[in-house]
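Dear colleague,

Thank you for sharing your sequence with our group. We've completed the structure prediction you requested, and as agreed, I am returning the results in plain text so they can be pasted directly into your records. Please verify that the sequence below matches your submission; if there's any discrepancy, let me know and we will rerun it promptly.
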Amino acid sequence: MCGNYFKASSFRRRPESQSPLQGDSGLRRNDQGIFLSWQDAAPAALNREQKLAPTGLSRAWRAPVERLASSVLRFAPRHQRGFSLVEIIIGMVITAIALTSLTALLYPQFARGVDPIFQIRAAELGQALAEEILGKAFDASTPVGGNPPCNPCSAIAGTAADADGQARTTFDDVDDYNAYCQGFFNVIDQNGTDLTAGNGIYANFRMQICVFYDDAYAGASDNNGTVAKRIRVDIFPPSAGLVQTTTPIRFVFYRSNF
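Please find the predicted structure tokens below.
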């Protein structure tokens, strides 16, 4: 009866980390002497190992063989699983909500991002107008060279054409610019060119220029002054097409009687 079984001591137990069919090289010789990878040799070797294993020792062989089978299955290709229609619809809804929130958050920032550019351009226009106005005579009655100073001086008109009847291209004294005090006007240079027309860099900009006597330099109007005139130049940058509601870039300066 004992002759029908192998002795337990004749089976050398392999380390737990090494498969019974996987050696150091990962190859195993089949019955015809051909070396195969241990993955290819696993099915046939499994059957042979079960045949060679005595009935009394089958449990000792079960653990390493199961580890071998699990190793083979781990390297076997797995079937890829796609998305169902419900999952796709849910993903689209979540994406739409996220994009809507992101757009609502970033769009105002984009709109305000051009404000510094508009302010710089408005400042350039205001400075150019201020230099032009300061280069004009104090009054229509001021002689060439500014001496002697006018006294009395002419009244400041506030109509589209000043008291001298000057057009934009022929403005020759400070009072003439007060024609742009009542309302919001396109920015027109001394050559009569409308800088705000078309799609140029100053499109939709507006200006307002007010002049009045202020002999005390207090910011209040003196109806019949003779010493100084206060000049205010406002440049309105565009904002959603409502230029008159925006905060202007303001220049305030004085022209003395000389």
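Summary note from our side: Helices lie at 38-52, 58-75, 85-112, 115-134.

Kind regards,
the structure core
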